[in-house]
């Protein structure tokens, strides 16, 4: 199991650093004027929509890890990534800079009137984000494929330092709108990380990729589409829950307050589950060895349990109030709302590790359709529970969203486990 831990920790560190990013952004926005509206604009509209647009490129990391095995395969996948990133960037521009925002996004999400314009401005600033995400995840997958996992963590460190710098300048020097500071920090930080990943990949491509290809397989054309489309649908459908969750909150009582708490609460949950997301690439790289499967399974349960216990230690103790009031800087009423809701999500870190384990096995076997099936189940369950919440009108929409997400994740992990039973995972 030590080999699994050695492969996992650089990637986990990278994801943990990214997980720190959202709480940092929320903490700065909460200390700028008009706290509730700015947090609602960023956490309830800008970030979920930007995530949704770039969702199809997220799995470029897994695809590049699995397929960038020789120079021809690298160039084919890079061309595919470029076209996909361009299409998604154009979609982002249409949403942010045209009347589509007023005609579709505002009524669809039922955005509160005082949040509409700050959110529009934040989306405009986030325009480069999708391209940067696609390019850096493609090159990070290549780095992981050839054993340069520590370079991924270094790139994330560069991103975090850049993000912090932009946040501090926006907060202490310019004193800009909270959503402007948040969107600028996220966009610029990701661009810097993408530049580093591309530069770090160049010497490796000129040496290892040319002289010692892993194999001669090249996945292209329809075969590449059959591999990647189900893979891309996975984060697309999962991330769809972000704006759907926001839309559900908007249709329940205390909408602005719930949206304001959603960003910092979601940031804390993501920070605790982020190390589990990193486990996916480790499984892809190691599950070809049947002897390694027992270690991969054992590590997923052990690490997932530890991160779930860490989240529980915050959610069920006075640390929760300290987090929302002192660290994030929320007003007392908002902090109470976050403290009362966080415990619902404590199983999500463990479920994330298990999902990464099963997904990694399926990606390695090129059975990506099963992953899409699991996400459709996740989306169906969460939407059904949200619909019940809208009908029942609970005091806080945040509670309904967290219940929906937790039960949806349980169903998704269960389905993935079911679809893995015929693979080497079950025989390990």
Written account of the structure:
- This protein is mainly α.
- Helix 3 runs antiparallel to helix 4.
- 57% of the residues are buried.
- The chain has one domain.
- The chain is globular.
How would the blueprint of this fold be written?
Elements: H1 2-29, H2 35-58, H3 60-67, H4 71-97, H5 100-109, H6 113-125, H7 129-145, H8 149-174, H9 178-206, H10 208-211, H11 221-250, H12 255-286, H13 293-315, H14 319-327, H15 332-341, H16 348-364, H17 369-392, H18 397-420, H19 424-427
**Number of H/I helices:** 19
Number of domains in the coordinates? Answer: 1
* Structural class determined from secondary elements: mainly alpha
Instruction: Please report the total strand number as a whole number.
Output: 0
C-alpha end-to-end distance = 14 Å
> Which H/E pattern describes the elements?
HHHHHHHHHHHHHHHHHHH
Task: Offer a concise description of the structure.
The protein is mostly helical and 428 residues long. Helices cover 84% and strands 0% of the residues.
């Amino acid at each position: 199991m030590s080999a699994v831990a050695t492969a996992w920790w650089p990637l986990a560190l990278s994801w943990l650093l990214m997980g720190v990013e959202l709480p940092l952004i929320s903490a700065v926005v909460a200390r700028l004027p008009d706290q509730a509206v700015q947090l609602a604009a960023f956490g309830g509209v800008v970030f979920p929509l930007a995530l949704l647009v770039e969702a199809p490129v997220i799995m470029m990391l897994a695809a590049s890890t699995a397929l960038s095995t020789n120079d021809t395969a690298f160039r084919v996948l890079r061309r595919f990534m470029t076209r996909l990133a361009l299409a998604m960037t154009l979609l982002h521009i249409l949403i942010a800079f045209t009347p589509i925002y007023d005609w579709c996004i505002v009524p669809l999400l039922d955005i509160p009137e005082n949040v509409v314009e700050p959110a529009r401005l934040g989306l405009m600033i986030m325009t480069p984000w999708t391209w940067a995400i696609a390019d850096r995840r493609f090159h990070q997958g290549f780095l992981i494929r050839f054993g340069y996992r520590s370079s991924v963590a270094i790139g994330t460190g560069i991103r975090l330092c850049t993000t912090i710098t932009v946040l501090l300048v926006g907060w202490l020097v310019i004193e800009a709108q909270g959503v402007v500071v948040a969107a600028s920090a996220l966009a610029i930080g990701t661009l810097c990380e993408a530049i580093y990943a591309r530069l770090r990949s160049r010497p490796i491509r000129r040496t290892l990729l040319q002289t010692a290809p892993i194999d001669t397989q090249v996945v292209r054309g329809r075969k590449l589409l059959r591999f990647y489309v189900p893979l891309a649908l996975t984060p697309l459908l999962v991330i769809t829950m972000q704006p759907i969750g926001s839309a559900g909150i908007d249709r329940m009582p205390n909408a602005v307050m719930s949206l304001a708490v959603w960003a910092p609460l979601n940031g804390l949950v993501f920070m605790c589950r982020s190390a589990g997301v990193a486990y996916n690439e480790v499984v892809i790289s190691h599950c070809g060895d049947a002897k390694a499967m027992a270690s991969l399974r054992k590590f997923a349960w052990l690490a997932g349990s530890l991160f779930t216990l860490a989240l529980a230690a915050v959610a069920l103790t006075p640390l929760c109030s300290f987090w929302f009031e002192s660290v994030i800087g929320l007003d007392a009423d908002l902090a109470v709302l976050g403290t009362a809701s966080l415990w619902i999500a404590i199983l999500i870190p463990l479920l994330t590790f298990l999902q990464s384990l099963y997904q990694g096995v399926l990606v390695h076997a090129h059975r990506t359709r099963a992953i899409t099936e699991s996400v459709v189940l996740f989306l169906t369950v969460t939407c059904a529970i949200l619909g019940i919440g809208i009908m029942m009108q609970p005091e806080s929409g945040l509670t309904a969203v967290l219940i929906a997400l937790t039960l949806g994740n349980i169903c998704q992990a269960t389905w993935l486990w079911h679809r893995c039973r015929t693979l080497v995972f079950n025989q390990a």
